[in-house]
């Protein structure tokens, strides 16, 4: 029988009574030696001196209860070296960190944060040593009418701010073999079941594997942590392969020494190459000087006197050049004269170098005040021809000196003039570039076009607004096409973008767009032209679709607008617009009219012929347009012959239902011949209508006042007297009979 105390404990603590039973027994055993009842201290606090002997008794009792472990090896939290041992075993404790800044805490918590600061809070965790929680506890609101749950009651929150440092992956996670579970679930699984009354520790279950399962398991994985990145290899062969070639991460000393040696010898090789180039230049200069000395040694007394005279003349030219009384043209003529008179002395003294040295300041002086775009054409050509003479003087050795003369004198003047030039006045600039290309046999004109002219044109296009500017850009861009050609392709894209933006708000009734786009038809490439014309056709297609087809009063503005674009738009695209926007309404209006009880077939025929005469001849030759007009004629003939009980479908409806359009058999009506007869009757002003009678199962028609029958490719005419036989006749005979009968009736 259990003791009363045990029953009392169970009634109070329930299943938790067993866990604290030993402690209560100890307390009872300590007090039962005195055989006195338990007394309570009222209204006072026990002093530390009154329990001074109690820790010793607790230590002895603990030593007696832990006989299996030596007390020297028991880790006590109060021991002096306990913190050091714990740190050595568990590692240093990470400092607590705040996830929120002081400004965020002040904004979120207000007065509470101010009170924390007054209590000495300076950041980090709470407590004297700043090792408490550093972040406020978050509360997860439970949904309405929901009780306590096994999952979701606790907020998985990092209160100490160490999630970044502590959240390192283990080796099992790195290898991918570990199972990832939620943190709350892992903590619940780690809780022991010892708190239960009959709780017993569960033994790990032994799992046996077969040989096939062991073979099917993934191979061994080797973790290579020697470099800056962790690598995983499945075998030693793979690990050895990763150490070869460019992926070598070992032998740092050897690789460092190799780099030092390579850099050292690289400097030596570079120095050797520079010395080689210097020696080559010295040898070339020495060779030239040797040739000059040898040529000077070979001259005789007469030639020596000629050299002295040549020096005297060149010196006189230099004096005139210093005084500014010698023009570039005169200087070029003087040196050309000296070269033709004394070619050997000119070559020995290398007077060409002296000539270019004197020409440079002269050219700078003349071109400093020259305004090529404002001067007459004659003056411009004289200046260019004067500098072109120096190109004839330049040889292969002095060609660089002529290029330097151009770049130092002429090109700065031309660039200055082009910077102040208005791109909307292209004529003078075009003539200047043509003159430069014709006179100067160099690429100076091409460099000016690429560096100055095209950028100026591009900037002018960027500032052009088609909504406000009344001058079309083709007036000042197209004159450049013969000179620049394909170089202007970079200008078409920005123009197309600006035109396209204006077409967004364009009304198809405005005919000015056609005149604006027409100059660009043959200039734009397909990549820039096709998007513009498609936008125009889409606008017109929308307008045609919104215009109903009414036989009593038709609005033709949208269709005429479409026909006006036929010279710029492909005919196939125009016929596509008609097929999608116009012909569905046209077929619907034709059927409504034919279903009317008071329908006059002659009016329907005139309406049909009117539409065909409205369409241009180029469009009538398109297959799409022919198909729809033939379908309309077929519907008309079917209605006049069989009534409106069974009208054939329109081409759109037949294609939509994946069914062929209903057509009359070939032996009943020949569409081509009847279509031709209707056109001829319209041209001649004759009535062409089917009659309410048949002959041999064929439809009989009225042409003027004559009666005819169509049979495949033959036309039969009824006798005029009403008696006799039908005869086959030619078209001229049929028309003559129709006209004669008409005159006789009148």
UniProtKB/TrEMBL annotation:
The keyword Ubl conjugation does not apply. Its main location: nucleus. This is STIPL1 protein. Keywords: mRNA processing, mRNA splicing, Nucleus, Spliceosome. The keyword Nucleus applies. GO terms for biological process: spliceosomal complex disassembly. One of its GO terms (molecular function) is nucleic acid binding. The lineage of its organism: Eukaryota, Sar, Alveolata, Dinophyceae, Suessiales. Residues 108-153 form the G-patch domain. InterPro entries: G_patch_dom, GCFC_dom, STIP/TFIP11_N, TFP11/STIP/Ntr1. It comes from Symbiodinium necroappetens. Residues 55-67, 184-198 have a biased composition (Basic and acidic residues). It comes from the Eukaryota. Residues 39-67, 173-206, 641-664 are annotated as: Disordered. The gene is STIPL1. PROSITE patterns: G_PATCH. GO terms for cellular component: U2-type post-mRNA release spliceosomal complex.
């Amino acid at each position: 029988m259990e003791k009363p105390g045990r029953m009392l404990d169970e009634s109070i603590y329930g299943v938790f009574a067993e866990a604290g039973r030993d402690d209560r027994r100890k307390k009872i055993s300590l007090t039962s030696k005195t055989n006195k009842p338990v007394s309570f201290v009222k209204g006072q606090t026990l002093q530390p001196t009154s329990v001074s002997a109690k820790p010793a008794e607790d230590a002895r009792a603990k030593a007696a209860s832990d006989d299996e472990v030596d007390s020297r090896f028991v880790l006590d939290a109060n021991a002096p070296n306990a913190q050091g041992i714990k740190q050595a075993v568990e590692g240093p404790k990470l400092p607590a960190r705040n996830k929120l800044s002081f400004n965020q805490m002040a904004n979120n918590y207000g007065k509470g944060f101010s009170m924390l600061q007054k209590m000495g809070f300076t950041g980090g965790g709470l407590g004297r040593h700043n090792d408490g929680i550093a972040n406020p506890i978050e509360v997860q609101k439970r949904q309405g009418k929901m009780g306590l749950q096994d999952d979701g009651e606790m907020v998985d929150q990092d209160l100490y701010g160490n999630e970044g440092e502590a959240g390192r992956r283990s080796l099992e996670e790195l290898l991918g073999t570990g199972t990832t579970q939620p943190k709350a679930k892992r903590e619940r699984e780690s809780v022991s079941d010892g708190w239960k009354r009959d709780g017993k520790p569960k033994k790990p279950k032994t799992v046996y594997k077969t040989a096939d399962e062991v073979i099917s398991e993934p191979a061994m994985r080797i973790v290579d942590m020697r470099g800056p990145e962790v690598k995983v290899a499945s075998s030693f062969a793979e690990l050895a392969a990763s150490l070869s070639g460019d992926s070598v991460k070992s032998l740092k000393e050897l690789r460092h020494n190799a780099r030092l040696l390579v850099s050292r010898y690289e400097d030596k090789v570079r120095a050797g190459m520079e010395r080689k180039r210097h020696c080559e230049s010295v040898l070339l200069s020495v060779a030239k000087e040797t040739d000059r000395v040898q040529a000077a040694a070979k001259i005789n007394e007469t030639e020596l006197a000629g050299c002295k005279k040549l020096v005297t003349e060149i010196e006189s030219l230099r004096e005139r050049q210093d005084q500014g009384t010698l023009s570039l043209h005169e200087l070029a003529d003087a040196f050309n004269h000296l070269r033709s008179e004394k070619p050997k002395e000119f070559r020995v003294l290398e007077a060409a170098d002296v000539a270019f040295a004197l020409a440079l300041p002269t050219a700078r002086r003349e071109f400093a005040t020259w305004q090529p775009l404002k001067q007459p054409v004659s003056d411009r050509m004289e200046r260019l021809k004067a500098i072109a003479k120096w190109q004839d003087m330049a040889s292969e050795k002095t060609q660089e000196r002529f290029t330097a003369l151009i770049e130092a004198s002429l090109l700065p003047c031309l660039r200055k003039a082009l910077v102040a030039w208005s791109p909307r006045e292209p004529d003078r600039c075009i003539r200047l570039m043509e003159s430069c290309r014709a006179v100067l046999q160099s690429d100076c004109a091409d460099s000016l076009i690429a560096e100055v002219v095209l950028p100026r044109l591009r900037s002018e296009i960027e500032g052009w607004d088609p909504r406000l500017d009344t001058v079309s850009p083709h007036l000042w861009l197209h004159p450049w096409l013969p000179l620049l050609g394909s170089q202007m392709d970079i200008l078409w894209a920005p123009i197309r973008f600006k035109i396209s933006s204006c077409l967004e708000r364009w009304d198809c009734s405005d005919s000015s767009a056609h005149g604006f786009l027409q100059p660009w038809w043959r200039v734009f490439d397909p990549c820039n032209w096709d998007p513009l014309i498609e936008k125009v056709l889409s606008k017109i297609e929308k307008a045609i679709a919104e215009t109903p087809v009414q036989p009593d009063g038709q609005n033709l503005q949208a269709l005429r607008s479409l026909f006006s674009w036929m010279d710029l738009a492909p005919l196939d695209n125009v016929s596509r617009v008609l097929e999608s926007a116009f012909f569905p309404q046209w077929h619907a209006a034709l059927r409504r009219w034919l279903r009317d009880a008071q329908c006059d077939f002659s009016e329907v025929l005139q309406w049909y012929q009117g539409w065909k005469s409205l369409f241009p001849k180029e469009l009538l030759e398109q297959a799409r347009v022919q198909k729809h007009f033939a379908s309309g004629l077929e519907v008309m003939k079917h209605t006049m012959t069989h009534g409106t009980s069974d009208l054939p479908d329109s081409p759109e409806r037949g294609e939509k239902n994946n069914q062929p359009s209903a057509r009359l058999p070939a032996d009943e009506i020949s569409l081509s011949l009847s279509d031709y007869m209707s056109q001829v009757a319209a041209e001649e002003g004759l009535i062409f209508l089917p009659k309410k009678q048949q002959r041999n199962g064929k439809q009989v028609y009225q042409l003027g006042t004559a009666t005819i029958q169509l049979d495949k490719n033959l036309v039969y005419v009824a006798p005029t007297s009403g008696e006799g036989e039908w005869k086959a006749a030619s078209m001229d005979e049929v028309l003559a009979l129709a006209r004669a009968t008409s005159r006789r009736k009148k």
